[in-house]
Design brief:
Blueprint: E1 3-5, E2 30-31, E3 43-47, E4 51-52, E5 60-68, E6 80-87, E7 99-101, E8 104-114, E9 123-131, E10 143-152
């Protein structure tokens, strides 16, 4: 295993207390809507520490995701969760996110995505990013919560 953060005791991780989305492992998760529904125009990101993929020719990102956000409006994702990959100078390595979702599945799902060739053999960072618009469809949403993030080869 190359990189793993799980149940860390930092100020960026919180105890989840609503919407029956108990943490997959331990007591801590990271996300929005942990004690209330998220606000309009919420923009948050969690950055991993620098991960050394030098000498690595294949890697896979896995994490548990609980998503409850407004779905696409006219085929446009106005509220979304996404994962980007950056180099160790905080420059994006790809134009598009590695992973992007919208809508609600209101249960934990294990997500898996291959790390692209642009990142292999380099030092990288992962950005878990959430964004919402300023308009509501009138339904309260819990947001996006992640747990047990791992990167393995």
């Amino acid at each position: 295993m190359v990189f793993f953060f799980k149940d860390q005791a930092t100020t960026e991780f919180y105890t989840l207390s609503r919407h029956d989305a108990l943490p997959i492992c331990g007591a801590n998760v990271f996300g929005t809507g942990l004690s209330a529904d998220y606000a309009h125009e919420t923009i948050i990101s969690l950055f991993s520490p620098v991960i050394d993929l030098t000498g690595i020719d294949k890697a896979k990102l896995e994490f548990w995701s609980y998503l409850d956000v407004e779905g696409p409006v006219s085929d446009e994702l106005t509220e979304y969760a996404e994962v980007y990959i950056l180099d160790d100078n905080s420059e994006y390595l790809t134009d598009m996110p590695l992973w992007k979702r919208s809508g609600s599945y209101e249960r934990w799902r294990k997500e898996s995505v291959s790390i692209p060739d642009e990142a292999l053999g380099k030092k990288i960072q992962l950005e878990f990013h959430f964004g919402s618009d300023c308009v509501s469809d009138g339904v309260p949403y819990a947001g996006w919560v992640i747990d047990d993030v791992s990167l393995s080869n």
